[in-house]
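Methods: example folding runs. The two proteins below were folded one after another, and each record is reproduced exactly as written to the output file, sequence line first and structure-token line second.
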Amino acid sequence: MAPSTDAEPIAKGTIPTIKQSFRDLFRWRQRVATTNEYGEVATEWQTPEPLQNPVKLFMQLSAKDWLFFIVGLLAWTADAFDFHALSIQTVKLAKYYETSKTNITTAITLTLLLRSVGAASFGLAGDKFGRKWPMVINMIVLGLLQIATIYSATFQQFLAVRSLFGLFMGGVYGNAIAMAFENCPVNARGL
């Protein structure tokens, strides 16, 4: 590993951080902040570690790491199944609600658009309260919204339920993947 060299300190504030992060994308070395035993923070450039054999990395995962991975995968799979099951039924839904296929696909688009709002809000909740309970609440409400989709009698009810589904759909992936990565060995996080 090459010796590290000093780097400018990590930027503070949104715009300076964006600028610095964008510039850092085009460098092979990584900006790392280190703290010594006196509490002094220094920023330096370090060369990334060479890639490792993925089998060796998989062997580092404990049963708990695999469990977190499987929980995240199953949460995402349940979410994706519901979304795609609805997407392939646009003709039947248009007949049932006596509306156009365009209106049904608009509801699906609205679901996708509200995912980012849900991801931001549940991401903040996960940061503030921990990953577990926002994820549990998210999955319970998603289950209830899946059932509510079945019992939507009018297109307006369907649109409202699918909009809420989009909010909660956005909250699944971020917390699930963050929970899996936080409990995974550092050098196995890229798997």
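Second run, written to the same file directly after the first:
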Amino acid sequence: MWIIRILSSVIFLTSTVVTIPLAFDVGGRACGLAFSLSLASFYFFYSVLRLATPTTSRFRWFLVKLVAATQWLVLPSLLIWSLNRFSVEPTDTRGWVERTFSGKRAEDTSVSQWILGPDGLAERVTVGAWDKLLTWSTPAFQLSEGFCSLLVIQASGQVTRWLVNRSGKSDSWMIGLLVMSASVISSAVYFLYRVTQFPEISNVDATLIGMAITCAIFLCAWGIGSGKGNPVESSLLFAYIVLCIYQIFTDYQPSGPVGPPQPSEAADFPPFPPIIMASYTTLLQALSLLPSAIHATFNFIVAALSTVTPSVIISLAYRLFVLYASTRIIPAVRDSGARTLSQEPSLEDSDGAGQILGVLSWFSPSILITVYTSLLMQHFASTSNGDSGDWWVSQGGDVGNNLWRWINVAGTMALYALELKLGKEDLDSGVVGHWKAD
């Protein structure tokens, strides 16, 4: 059963990651927003149905299983509907309110077209409200990422401190953790060097980078020197600050134009033995005999994956990781015990925080779609300053800025400094409070 659940989750993540940017790329901004809204609404009602289904009702149980089985048909159907409904550019560039109150509503052939037609009342209420929600939720997602990252960093620091001070192989753990911390810092310094090579960095950007890195180094030294932190905690904090800076100034794409590849000289000997080359040639001939539908499907998958930029995938994976880790860390800090890390949040918890985390876990598919769509819109907005992003601005999108990312960097370091100022070194509290050592 758990294999089926894992396979289902992988298929859901893959289809979501591929289809939403495909809707934006093929159908435009309105099509992508409509598809993500319909997909999030479907999984929202599916989660509500699962949550409201009692264990004794076989009818509702059958209904939930039926919806779960048909979701793989619903997703392509919603994508086709969105491409068919919203990919056509409206001929009238005026908004619904302007058309209504300007006395020119007679241009609409019927009331149904005025309400359900392109850029009508229904589209403004649903897709327009979804657009505003995603735009306004971007600061909340950004700040939540910083707060959850700080929780993960501090929990990692407590666990490593317990391993060094209370475990039987403290020297081995200390050497290994020091090597790991040095590797993390070295990798962060390399990516920081990559940032300094970008041509679009101005004097103001360089000043902000210098201030952020200086504050991060000061906090790391303060944490290690005061005994309230450790090398692992400091290295992770420094790496997260560098990650935020890297996300601000790069899209994980080459900073300069890539020239055409130089033709390579023919080798005197084949790269592999003749038996391997013969098997490779036979395999290519066998693949060429496959039906054209398989080739078309493969080309479609490759084209869909090419619309997803690595920056969005990395940001989504990291944000989901820290959000999920926080749902485990917060109950562990509340209960002062590490055994809570192995327990899923539930609505049956006695306190309000556990119930809120339980609700978020039930509606995780809709939250994932919302976070991913917000990241895609942030990516398209950040690339709208050049010629490649004119399509986003022409379809009503805003030009992106990195204000909230800088606020996240400053807020994360300020919160960590406050923790170092007010906290105390106490190994028997926090996540590792209930761990025992023989």
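Comment on the second run: The CA atoms of residues 312 and 375 lie 6 Å apart.
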